[in-house]
Amino acid sequence: MDRLSPFQLDKRWLWTAAIGLLLFLLIQVFPVTGQLFTTDVHPVMTRTTAENKAFEWATSRFGIKHEEVDAVTVTHLSDSDTVGYFTKNQLMDSYNKKWSKFAPTDVYAVKLHLRDKAEALLLYIHMETGKLVAWQHLNNAGATNKVVDKPVMETDKLAAHALDYAQFWGVTPQDWEWIGNDKKTGSVKFVSRKANIGESRLWLKVAVPDGFSVFKSSFPPWAGGSVTYGVDLPASFTAYMKDQEKLSAKLSILGFILPQIILFIIAIVYTGTHGKYTSYRRGIFLAALFFALYAGLTFNMLPGLRAGTWKAGANVGDNVNLVISLVTYAAMAILTYFSAVGGDGLWKSMGRSLWPRWNESNYGAAVLRSMREGYFLAFILLGAQSIILLVLEKSLGSFASSDASQSMYNMTYPLLLPLLAWCAGISEELQSRLLGIGVFRSWFVGGARKLLRREPSRRTAIVLTTVAMIPPGLLWAMGHVGYAIYPVYTRIIELVIMSILFGWFMLRFGVITVIFAHVTLDATLMGMQMMFDGLPGDFFGGVFSLLMPGLAGIVIWWLHGAISGRNKIAT
Mind telling me which residue stretches traverse the membrane in this protein (predicted)? Predict the structure, then answer.
């Protein structure tokens, strides 16, 4: 018996989807203040505008002309530890009122590579106002130039000298108190005299180049200098964040990368042993689409890749990041292909057909139906995710930080962000759900069959199928522990629960429906992010993101009908 269309589904599904959407809006979208239909959106400069602002500052304050610059890179940087501390302790409002205007946690770092010199000038630009908030003169290794052989000064005079220098760059001297010198960089360190935020305090470091004199320099020298700021956080919190990063790295390697290699081998084996139940052409288009999208988006996300290595001080070039990423995505595309063939063949060998083929007469109608069902299921998933995260926040004290490597502001064309939803939906559903659940179900049910020496009961098979959703769900969750949500096991708990819902939906509605549900879920989250990121034009990009899965389903339905001559909507 053919499945019902979403508009003929039991009302319980529709009500559940409506409740899920409402929970998502109340918990994740609307501000926690209760002002349901307003949000505090600040306009943010584009990367091009930030580059132009940097050139204005370079000319007016440093005397650097445009033709003296050989190359420019613009990277969004975020002080993730500080953001995490403020978020965890509910101090973001205090930060926004006290520090955000002159010491923002998020900046555009514009690096001006000087022509004919192995040096660069790094300007930190306020993302909303375009103000120059900090700067560094870098050598060819990317480090701040060390100032050596300085004239010996008394401590109080050295501090006053540094503040005189910093004043030219917009620093108010009376706001800062000297606390020591950094011998490695030759800089002088100060802390703010203004009130701290929680247990955090704002610091300022100033490196004064030789030859600076407040009496004779209306345009002071900058080569070898720097004026930077940061936040000193409680030692207990910084130690916690370091431990979390180490745990995340271990879980990623032991819990995701190594099992992913094993899954790759399993996918090849099951493709060979169960290929007779399906076609070896199965999944070629989706795997190719996955790689094409990710390869194209990698060029779009090069600033983000750069930001990901910035904190560690790794001087990794864009070309290296690009090659590593493309090789990784090629391997993932191959795994996606084998997962499609092996998974489809495995399920068909167990008497289940979860994935219609293009040459079937009702394929277009099935895709259109799956798209519509995918929206309803996505709303249910969004509501479930919201409840899970809320419970984890209240019970475990989980909190989110920032991650510049995933930032909208580190995309050359932010409007392309929604395409990432297709990459995740295609690869993760074919790998973790179609193949992963199929493999573990065959193992568990097969093991029960051998143990009982008979076919297990329907109830036993259902229980074993449910249990089979957990191992691939755990593998899927381990691939997301690198996200800036703490403690890192927060995402493991969340996504293992979500994986059971995804698995149940796949068995109930099929592979195409669950891919659409996954894409719609991600596209909705991305769309909301775009609507409120402050970049010009992104609000309409967010609206497009919400509509994108539906448009894709309609296009596939129309294409299949146009090619096959059958255009009808499933009822």
Answer: 251-271, 283-302, 322-347, 374-392, 461-483, 495-519, 539-559
